[in-house]
Amino acid sequence: GSQQMIGAQGLGQNNPALPWAPMTMTAPVFPIATDPAPSLRTELAATLQRIDGWGSGAWREIYRVWRLRGCLLSIDDLEAGVSRDDDDRVAAFVIVLPDHGLGAHADVSQRTAICDWVLRLAWSTLLTDARITVTTHRPGAAVRATNACVFTAPSAGQKPALLIRLLVRLPLAGMCCDGKALARFVRRIESFAADLNLRKKRSALSAHQRSVAIQQALRRALADHDLAAFIGDGSLLARGADGGPLPECRAWRTPKADRLTIDLGPLGKFHGLGIRRGVTAVAGAPYHGKSTVLAALAAGRDDHPPGDGRELVVADETALVVQAEDGRRIKSTDLSGFFTHLPGADSRTFSTSRASGATSMDQFSARHRGWLPTAADRRRYCRVKFSDHRSADAPITRSRV
User: Fold this and answer.
1) CB neighbours (10 Å) of residue 73?
2) What are the CA-CA distances from residue 268 to residues 199, 257, 274, 315 (Å)?
3) Contacts of 296 (CB under 8 A, 6+ apart)
4) Using CA atoms, how far apart are residues 380 and 362, in angstroms rounded to an integer?
5) Is 278 helix (H, G, I), strand (E, B) or coil?
6) Which of 54, 237, 316, 379 is deepest in the core (most CB within 10 A)?
7) Do residues 324 and 364 make contact, with C-beta atoms less than 8 angstroms apart?
8) How far is 203 from 208, CA to CA, in rounded Å?
């Protein structure tokens, strides 16, 4: 009854076919505000000087967009509590460089390489020794796209702008705002932006882009050569504690009989080992690099920066890693049924804090399956010569599996 009454008194009377019609929207009393114009850097300097020594709540005075030298800086408060302490305020800093001198690239992989290089440069120059707590995404061993540094969508007649996102813990002197410390960091941002705005030849950036371009081209060439992966000569596969190449690692060299050449045209010719599609077995004694090769192939799905050592190791993008639990701790375990000799250890009482893949699997078999091969088993199964996995008449023996 109430709905019919509303319809009779409202819009329903304009349409006799309907008992009632929805009410039209009236103009809002308070129109939605548009993005404000950026404030001047002189006003930011005056604001930081004015709130220096005030309570932490005064940081709300800087939450807006500022026009600095060579860039725009957006400062916004982070809600949902990055920290549970009300006095510990974390702000989101977004640096926008509309006139950067890094060029405009339509290729997604090249734009990803540029953003990765910018983040590495920011960590080495802007964030190091900043004297306040500031962070962003730290690039690792792979070159990947992140939202910490992106290019904006290009507008009509303008090239894409570069965005860099930071998390900054607003500095406090005791329980008061430290405006001077934040002003020093703002000047570091201006210096960092001025360097990126210079249109100059950057050898480090060019090497970064070329490395990614070569890896992308090698990965596309795998299908043409019926390969699942490729290891280029000169690669450094062993990893150190910091994730970089092991200092004493030897460069990869492919035997002449197995050497394959991939011609990438202007990017050059590259020699190495091509791993065919199908089943490939990697055999060898413990601690002789089997897991190292497999780990490098698994990382070949991603691009790597110059100096990583695996710039010429690529794998098919659909590669999937399925592995045993390596790196486990082994203490006083008898592995003599599998190995007669282990480097630097006694196989009868083997102990290590970081086992290889082979010793991890053997330790699992010895402990949980209760089976250990005897000396007769080793003579029976381990003296079979390895044959080509593509040979149809090759017997499937225990050692080959």
Assistant:
1) 23
2) 27, 22, 17, 19
3) 231, 235, 237, 310, 313
4) 18
5) coil
6) 237
7) yes
8) 9
φ, ψ of residue 2 in degrees (nearest 5): -70, -35
Q: Facing residues of 261 across strands?
A: 271
CB 57 within 8 A of CB 43: no
What is d(CA 350, CA 369) in angstroms, rounded to the nearest whole number?
18
| C-alpha distance from residue 81 to each of 62, 89, 215 (Å) | 19, 9, 41
Single out the residue of 307, 330, 220, 305 nearest to residue 264, CA to CA.
220
Which phi and psi angles does 60 have, rounded to 5°?
A: -65, -15
Is residue 151 a contact partner of residue 160, using CB atoms and an 8 Å limit?
A: yes
Question: Which ranges of 98-234 does DSSP label H, i.e. alpha helix?
Answer: 108-121, 179-197, 203-221
First-to-final CA distance of the chain: 80
Token pair for 308: 């990583």
DSSP state letters, 122-159 = IIIIISTT-SS-EE-----SSB---SSEEEPPP-TT-P
Q: Which of 333, 391, 399 is nearest to 366 (CA)?
A: 333
In a structure prediction context, what are the per-residue pLDDT tens digits for the chain, which is 401 residues long?
444 443 444 444 455 554 555 555 555 554 544 557 899 999 999 999 999 999 988 999 999 999 999 999 999 987 644 444 555 688 999 999 998 988 877 788 999 999 999 999 999 999 988 999 999 999 999 999 999 999 987 666 678 899 999 999 999 998 899 999 999 999 999 999 999 998 888 899 999 999 999 999 999 999 999 999 999 999 999 998 888 999 999 999 999 999 999 999 999 999 999 999 988 888 888 778 888 999 999 999 999 999 999 999 999 998 877 666 667 778 888 777 777 777 777 878 888 877 777 777 677 666 654 544 555 544 444 433 333 333 333 333 333 33
The rounded Cα 84 to chain-centroid distance in angstroms is 28
Q: What is the distance between the alpha carbons of residues 386 and 400, in angstroms, rounded to a whole number?
A: 7
Tell me which DSSP letter residue 24 carries: P
How far apart are the C-alpha atoms of 382 and 376, rounded to whole Å? 10
Pair of tokens at residue 20:
């009632």
pTM of the model: 0.73
Whether the CB-CB separation of 381 and 373 falls below 8 Å is answered with yes
Helix 108-121, helix 203-221: angle, nearest 10: 140
